[in-house]
Amino acid sequence: MHSDCERILLSEAELAAGVKAAGAWLTEKFRGAFPVAVCNLKGSAVFFADLLRAADIDVQADFMAVSSYGAGTVSAGKPKVTRDLFSSVAGRDVILVEDIVDTGRTLVTLRAFFRERGARSVTVVALLDKPSRRVVEAKADYTCFAVEDRFLVGYGLDYAERYRNLPYIAVLKERVYAADGQGAGAR
Ligand code: PRP
Questions:
Q1: In a domain, 187, yes or no
Q2: How many CA atoms, within 13 angstroms, populate the side-chain half-sphere of residue 13?
């Protein structure tokens, strides 16, 4: 385990099992269809790559970025689309792939965004959910793991752009973010 981590919350094996189940759910739901899966960069990239390979369907991949955190740990408020999609989603079934639903603002913003772009349907698959942190009503259609409100890193999740490449999800030691003057209220 990385020395900046306090403990592993989800091991590689647990993540693999969760992703496999999510892939099977997508396979069942989208059999015979050709949805477009959207990766909300950057945190979702690792999950996205594994999830698509766990889903036995024809699927288009697209990418966008929405950000509300900047370099810190505390949400700055309304999320902004910082990178748009490559392709139109008009008339398409969209699968939005999220690493984490926290306050719920990103999810609400993106559901509205895809509706405005004329998507036929929007299905949200989230790796993690922190229901205790919600400030707006938001729910993924499929969630792999509900987790506690600790600062988590790994498997795509960062702190100040580090730790995304850890193969597990771990609780970050408080001293790491406290040193930067960041409070709790973690993601
Ligand atoms: C994170 C995460 C989600 C969002 C969830 O993105 O990837 O998209 O926050 O938070 P919310 O429910 O409070 O809206 P972040 O802005 O940290 O960007 P990143 O994925 O590039 O790290």
A1: no
A2: 0
State how far the Cα of 130 lies from the Cα of 15, in Å rounded to an integer: 16
Where in the sequence numbering do the catalytic residues fall? 102
Q: Are 34 and 58 in contact (CB under 8 A)?
A: yes
pTM score, two decimals?
0.92
Instruction: Tell me what the pLDDT averaged over the chain comes to.
Output: 92
pLDDT 10s digits, 48-73: 999 999 999 999 999 999 977 555 55
Look at the chain and report how many structural domains it folds into. Answer: 1
Read off the CATH number of the domain in which 83 is found: 3.40.50.2020
The residue nearest atom 18 of ligand 1, judged by CA position, is: 67
Domain that holds residue 33: 5-178
Give me ligand 1 centre to Cα 32, in Å. Answer: 31
Q: Is residue 21 part of a domain?
A: yes
Which residue's alpha carbon is nearest to atom 20 within ligand 1? 43
